[in-house]
């Protein structure tokens, strides 16, 4: 039962796909299906990181700001002053390293405050979300930074075998995440900590280390998602990543990842991402105004919670 529980979202995905085929004959075209996967790539990468943290029973809502800040700082250091940069014009590969490095530092700081200082993860990461967004706006002065070199845009713009590289990369990251959670001591420790942190500690698990590395990994993935998004847009915008955390939480919850920790599988998170991506595409093809999409997301989350509650059995994880 526990091996297929997260796949309960699959019927919903099939239903949405059928509706999409009825709404528009273009829905099932290869170009549109590729578009769905491409537009879901950044969300999927953030969801992987968020899943790591949720499995421990913690939360990080600052990931969306890391998506915007990390590539913004890198682009600011990368491009000439004449087009909005600082003027240092660092090497593009160095800029890529800075992007990931910033993500890791943000995760390390969040993890330290939550694990070592014992602050509430929601409040800490809410403060960080606001702080990082403010820094992003301050650096960019509300402007879009463009003129990014090809190497910096590569992961978001390249195509491998005729398919966007972002789709391949996201699929590989989901596969790696699944293997980590299933076959490594670190992955099993995430579940153990989410189930009972004190029992995990008594069993010899380095709880603090595992928690902090989960925050670092999640923020590094968010920074990489920002790099990928910058490549797709060929620019870094001041509002990049805004509200992404709500979609990420929605995908995780829909996919069966429990906010209380200790339960959920990466395949369920993937199903949640695909459902939201497909749903957004269908609503767009149907001409539904963008501002109604968030309302639909909320309804889908509530439905997923109800289905999960009704389908849950005491003692089953």
From TrEMBL:
<protein>
    <submittedName>
        <fullName>ABC transporter permease</fullName>
    </submittedName>
</protein>
<dbReference type="GO" id="GO:0022857">
    <property type="term" value="F:transmembrane transporter activity"/>
</dbReference>
<feature type="transmembrane region" description="Helical">
    <location>
        <begin position="7"/>
        <end position="30"/>
    </location>
</feature>
<feature type="transmembrane region" description="Helical">
    <location>
        <begin position="67"/>
        <end position="87"/>
    </location>
</feature>
<feature type="transmembrane region" description="Helical">
    <location>
        <begin position="209"/>
        <end position="231"/>
    </location>
</feature>
<keyword id="KW-1003">Cell membrane</keyword>
<keyword id="KW-0812">Transmembrane</keyword>
<feature type="transmembrane region" description="Helical">
    <location>
        <begin position="243"/>
        <end position="259"/>
    </location>
</feature>
<feature type="transmembrane region" description="Helical">
    <location>
        <begin position="36"/>
        <end position="55"/>
    </location>
</feature>
<dbReference type="InterPro" id="IPR001851">
    <property type="entry name" value="ABC_transp_permease"/>
</dbReference>
<feature type="transmembrane region" description="Helical">
    <location>
        <begin position="160"/>
        <end position="181"/>
    </location>
</feature>
<dbReference type="Pfam" id="PF02653">
    <property type="entry name" value="BPD_transp_2"/>
</dbReference>
<feature type="transmembrane region" description="Helical">
    <location>
        <begin position="266"/>
        <end position="285"/>
    </location>
</feature>
<keyword id="KW-0472">Membrane</keyword>
<keyword id="KW-1133">Transmembrane helix</keyword>
<feature type="transmembrane region" description="Helical">
    <location>
        <begin position="93"/>
        <end position="115"/>
    </location>
</feature>
<feature type="transmembrane region" description="Helical">
    <location>
        <begin position="291"/>
        <end position="312"/>
    </location>
</feature>
<dbReference type="GO" id="GO:0005886">
    <property type="term" value="C:plasma membrane"/>
</dbReference>
<feature type="transmembrane region" description="Helical">
    <location>
        <begin position="122"/>
        <end position="140"/>
    </location>
</feature>
């Amino acid at each position: 039962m526990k091996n297929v529980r997260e796949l309960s979202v699959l019927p919903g995905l099939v239903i949405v796909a059928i509706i999409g085929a009825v709404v528009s004959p273009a829905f099932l075209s290869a170009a549109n299906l590729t578009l769905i996967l491409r537009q879901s790539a950044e969300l999927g990468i953030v969801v992987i990181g968020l899943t790591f943290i949720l499995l421990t029973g913690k939360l990080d809502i600052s990931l969306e700001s890391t998506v915007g800040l990390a590539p913004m700082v890198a682009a600011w250091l990368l491009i000439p002053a004449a087009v909005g940069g600082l003027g240092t014009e660092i090497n593009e590969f160095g800029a890529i390293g800075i992007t990931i490095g910033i993500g890791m530092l943000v995760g390390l700081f969040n993890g330290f405050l939550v694990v070592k200082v014992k602050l509430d993860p929601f409040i800490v990461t809410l403060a960080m979300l606001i702080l990082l967004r403010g820094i992003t706006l301050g650096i960019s002065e509300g402007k879009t930074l463009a003129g990014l070199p090809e190497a910096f845009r590569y992961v978001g713009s390249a195509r491998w075998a005729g398919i966007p590289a972002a789709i391949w990369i996201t699929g590989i990251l989901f596969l790696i995440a699944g293997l980590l959670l299933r076959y490594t001591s670190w992955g099993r420790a995430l579940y153990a900590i989410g189930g009972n942190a004190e029992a995990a500690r008594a069993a010899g698990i380095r709880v603090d280390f595992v928690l902090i590395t989960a925050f670092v990994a999640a923020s590094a993935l968010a920074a990489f998602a920002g790099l990928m998004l910058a490549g797709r847009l060929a620019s870094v915008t001041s509002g990049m990543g805004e509200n992404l955390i709500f979609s990420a939480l929605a995908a995780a919850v829909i996919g069966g990842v429990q906010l209380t920790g200790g339960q959920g599988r990466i395949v369920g998170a993937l199903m949640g991402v695909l459902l939201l991506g497909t749903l957004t595409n269908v609503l767009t093809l149907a001409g539904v105004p963008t501002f109604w999409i968030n309302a639909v997301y909320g309804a889908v989350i509530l439905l997923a919670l109800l289905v999960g509650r009704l389908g849950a059995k005491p003692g089953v994880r």
